[in-house]
Design the sequence.
């Protein structure tokens, strides 16, 4: 995904959850992105807020949101129902942008003018750029109303950050019994040259295959983003 597409997905949501760490505690608040360019995604806060101190202290942030609705309804059996939509998240490194830099960007890109005007109105306001990050669009249709599988996950990264591998993987102990494929309600397991393979774009990491496999042939993969 290009950064313009990533921004458009976030912008369609509007209000997003921004997560930081404060003295070891996770902290979240609602904010929004207001611009993007080839360097990254941009947001604002005030230098007087704890959010600012956390951003400066850690140099990292995680952002997520959900579209088109965040409310949960229930079916006749009381089970949760989610209308088809998507969630998106991005995690990475941030840097503060000097006001002069923002002004310069505003001369060629109109969307940065909003930030310039806001800072002129509220002098304690400042801008950050998420310049190196990875994330994912988690497109869901759990009832398979619009397509024959529940998920379509699309990973992305920018600023030179690789996408860390995370999810489930079938290893060489697989005896090809097929039980995992029969029990995967996400239809994420397929056969290739007799071997069973998990499609990470369709896998929810629900763990059904992991618990059911008689050969212990399903691994949980959690790659460190800094590897
Ligand atoms: S259940 Fe285990 S052994 Fe059977 S096909 Fe799946 S991964 Fe292979
Ligand atoms: S973790 Fe769940 S969704 Fe993923 S392959 Fe296994 S059973 Fe299917």
Sequence:
């Amino acid at each position: 995904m290009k950064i313009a597409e990533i921004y458009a997905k976030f912008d369609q949501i509007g209000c997003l959850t921004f997560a930081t760490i404060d003295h070891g505690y996770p902290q979240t608040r609602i904010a929004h992105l207001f611009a993007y360019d080839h360097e990254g995604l941009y947001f604002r806060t005030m230098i007087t807020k704890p959010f600012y101190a956390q951003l400066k202290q850690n140099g990292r942030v995680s952002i997520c949101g959900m579209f088109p609705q965040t409310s949960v309804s229930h079916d006749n059996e009381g089970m949760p129902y989610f209308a088809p939509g998507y969630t998106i998240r991005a995690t990475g490194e941030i840097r503060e942008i000097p006001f002069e830099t923002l002004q310069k960007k505003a001369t060629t890109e109109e969307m940065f003018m909003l930030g310039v005007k806001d800072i002129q109105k509220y002098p304690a306001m400042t801008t950050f750029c998420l310049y190196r990050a990875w994330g994912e669009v988690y497109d869901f249709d759990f009832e398979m109303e619009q397509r024959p599988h529940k998920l379509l996950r699309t990973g992305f990264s920018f600023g030179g950050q690789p996408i860390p591998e995370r999810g489930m993987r079938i290893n060489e102990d697989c005896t090809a019994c097929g039980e995992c494929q029969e029990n995967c309600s996400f239809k994420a397991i397929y056969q290739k040259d007799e071997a069973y393979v998990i499609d990470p774009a369709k896998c929810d990491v629900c763990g059904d295959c992991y618990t059911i496999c008689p050969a212990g042939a399903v691994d949980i993969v959690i790659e460190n983003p800094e590897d």
Notes: The chain has a mean pLDDT of 95. The first strand starts at residue 16 and ends at 22. Helices lie at 3-13, 50-58, 99-106, 111-121, 179-183, 208-212.
